[in-house]
């Protein structure tokens, strides 16, 4: 059994943390730069899991004497490779994308709060009103739609003066097919 150290366990563990922590940090930065911008973009559920796992691996490397730098770099590489693989498959397969990422949800459309969707997404009217205010919009009359995006962020779409927005609407992938007639 290891002895418990409360205040100071010698200089060797401190030197190990400094050396291994620095090398792990440099390795992680290099791996993240090589993997591309997607690894560091706004997070969906899978991106969040990868971020937490990378942080956990890094923390364990620094604090656990029994974990080697080579093991941690291998874990970093594996996690970043899995994130790259999932994002690569997501771009190439709509079926895979549906499994991995949530679809955006329409919460408000042309003067109506969509209560069923709001309940599903656990969002209240006061929260949506706050989001409208954060976008510096003073009245819901100026709002076409509010969408909860895949990453959990909110998009407020202002009303447009364009008469025919059917073919150019940013809401095309949010409205159900039966509702696309609203875009006329």
Fill in the keyword field for this structure.
DUF421, 2 domains, membrane, CRO Repressor, alpha+beta, single chain, four-stranded antiparallel β-sheet, 184 residues, DUF421 domain-containing protein, UPF0702_alpha/beta_dom_sf
Structure description:
With 184 residues, the protein is an alpha+beta fold. The protein folds into two domains: 11-99; 102-160, 2-Layer Sandwich (CRO Repressor). The protein is 50% helix and 10% strand. It is built from six helices and four strands, in the order H-H-H-H-E-E-H-H-E-E. The protein has a four-stranded antiparallel sheet with strand order 2-1-3-4. A hairpin with a 2-residue loop joins strand 1 and strand 2. The model is unreliable at 180-184 (pLDDT under 50).
Task: Please write out the topology.
Blueprint: H1 11-35, H2 45-63, H3 69-92, H4 94-100, E1 105-109, E2 112-113, H5 115-121, H6 125-134, E3 143-148, E4 154-158
Antiparallel strand pairs: 1-2, 1-3, 3-4
Mean pLDDT: 81
Biggest β-sheet: strands ordered side by side in the sheet = 2-1-3-4
Q: How would you sum up the global shape?
A: elongated
Distance between the termini: 73 Å
The secondary-structure element order is: HHHHEEHHEE
Number of strands: 4
How many strands, which pairing sense, and closed or not: the largest β-sheet?
4 strands, antiparallel
Write a brief caption for the model:
With 184 residues, the chain is of the alpha+beta class. 50% of the residues lie in helices and 10% in strands. It has a four-stranded antiparallel beta sheet.
